[in-house]
Design brief:
seven-stranded mixed sheet, 8 helices, binds S-adenosylmethionine
Length: 214
């Protein structure tokens, strides 16, 4: 994404009512019900980019609380702009590196985790930075409810194969694995396209997806 250096994006984010204040993040674990003012289930997307997926999900499911997490201010800014046009009470954003995700959500507080078109980090020495790596699966293990699910979509075959290899060592199992999501009518029911999904599927790339649990 070439949106990383928009001047002033950090300031806009700091003052946005749709973004959790970075200074307050360590007070959030165990308090998400209080933050949203209800006890609805909590679904999060890590690496949400410009936020089309999570915004549409939140709009379609007002009885679920959503939190979108994005590392870069200038990308997050685009998601904030959508909320400024039409604010959704069940959607909040966090600007952070997901490495610290288990410091923001309490044990078993999250009902579902979405990873969409995560950065591939192709060099072996960067494997631990990949969002479906075993290091990240351990963090997700701490915050996800016992019967919770994690859904991952990508068009990157190398990353998908890596993600599948990480499951067993990290103690996870797959409910569903597909190598061509868009040809599977059942799995496509209710599928919300992300920005990257639209871009790569329109080029003819197959979309891979798994749903996992432990
Ligand atoms: N999910 C969106 C989609 O499918 O259109 C965006 C995909 S984009 C390739 C990956 C996004 O994940 C980028 O916006 C990147 O900044 C973000 N990201 C990558 N690593 C991250 C991390 N460790 N913590 C938070 N966000 C991250």
């Amino acid at each position: 994404m070439r949106l990383r250096n928009i001047t002033g994006s950090r300031e806009v984010i700091q003052s946005s009512p749709f973004v959790i204040d970075e200074e307050a993040l360590d007070t959030c674990p165990g308090r998400w019900g209080e933050i949203f003012g209800n006890t609805h289930p909590l679904h999060i997307e890590i690496g949400m980019g410009k936020g089309r997926f999570i915004y549409t999900m939140a709009k379609n499911s007002p009885d679920i609380n959503y939190v979108g997490i994005e590392k870069y201010s200038s990308v997050l800014l685009r998601a904030i702009q959508k909320m400024e046009e039409e604010a959704l009470p069940n959607l909040k954003f966090i600007r952070m590196d997901a490495e610290d995700i288990d410091k923001v959500f309490g044990g078993g507080e999250v009902d579902k985790i979405y990873l969409n078109f995560s950065d591939p980090w192709p060099k072996d020495r960067h494997a631990r930075r990949r969002l479906p790596s075993r290091q990240f699966l351990d963090r997700y293990d701490r915050i996800l409810k016992r019967d919770g699910r994690l859904e991952f979509k990508t068009d990157n075959r190398g990353l998908f194969d890596f993600a599948l290899e990480e499951l067993e060592p990290a103690g996870w199992r797959a409910d569903i694995i597909t190598y061509d999501l868009h040809s599977d009518d059942k799995l496509m029911e209710g599928n919300i396209m992300t920005e990257y999904e639209e871009k790569f599927s329109s080029k003819g790339n197959p979309i891979y997806k798994y749903i996992i649990f432990r």
